[in-house]
TrEMBL record:
This is N-alpha-acetyltransferase 40. The gene is NAA40. Pfam families: Acetyltransf_1. Residues 51-200 form the N-acetyltransferase domain. It is an enzyme of class 2 (transferase). It comes from Pseudolycoriella hygida. The keyword Nucleotide-binding does not apply.
Length: 202
């Protein structure tokens, strides 16, 4: 490894450390990402560590994931494993961005973290779930834009996620947001694909 590469790896680790220590990484963009309004969609958005989430909201997050994506898991080789999903959603490192309606009921969320992935600093989006009644109102785009801004601000190299290959609408959505198949995605294609978006530096 050359000196330049060592520096670059250490600066990536530093960037992740800085981002991971930040209590509320969306704060620099609070004005832009604390509310989303379009037609009949009027929500406010908060960002919390898993440890600060209330149990009821975590339970709702699990139920929404089950409603939205269990059918895709069931019809591919992986199968729906609620205990695995439950455990993933309850990781101590998990950060949540949650959209709530006027009655303070949650309607959509994304779960993510800053991490190293195959030698790259990334913002890894583990879940993006919008309640059916709030889909196709621009909320998914809003969340991805928020994640992208954070990834940029904290000097991550990529915004990355995993999607089931049979989730055609999900893949269409991510493609429309500029995601492409990541180099680390399984080849030949399998039950899931890894998609990513390179972050232009500020
Ligand atoms: C996939 C998902 C996150 C998209 O979020 P959304 O809020 O419904 O999507 P948006 O309204 O922000 O759509 C933005 C753009 O993405 C594209 N898009 C979104 N859904 C699409 C679909 N079903 N088919 C084709 N294109 C789609 C469109 O270009 C759309 O722009 P337009 O509405 O102006 O045409 C959401 O529908 C969802 O939660 N689905 C179930 C769970 C899931 O699949 N999650 C992702 C994998 S974990």
């Amino acid at each position: 490894m050359t000196g330049v590469e060592v520096n670059s790896v250490s600066s990536q680790h530093k960037a992740i450390e800085r981002a991971s220590k930040t209590k509320n990484p969306i704060e620099p963009f609070a004005e832009q990402f604390s509310k989303y309004t379009k037609d009949d969609c009027d929500v406010s958005v908060y960002c919390k560590w898993k440890a600060d989430m209330d149990a009821k909201t975590l339970k709702w997050a699990m139920k929404l994931a089950e409603r939205n994506v269990a059918p895709f898991y069931r019809t591919c080789g992986i199968g729906w494993q609620p205990k695995v999903k439950q455990s993933d959603l309850n990781k101590n490192w998990a950060r949540y961005l949650v959209a709530v309606d006027k009655a303070k009921q949650p309607v959509a969320y994304t779960m993510f973290r800053f991490d190293m992935d195959y030698g790259c600093s990334v913002l890894y989006c583990y879940e993006l779930q919008i309640d059916k009644t709030y889909q196709r109102k621009g909320l998914g785009r809003f969340f991805i834009n928020a994640l992208e801004q954070m990834a940029k601000h904290y000097n991550m190299e990529k915004l990355i996620l995993t999607v089931l290959s049979n989730n055609e609408d999900g893949i269409k959505f991510f493609n429309s947001m500029g995601f492409i198949t990541d180099d680390t995605s399984p080849s030949p294609p399998t039950d899931y694909a890894i998609l990513s978006k390179t972050i232009d530096s500020l």
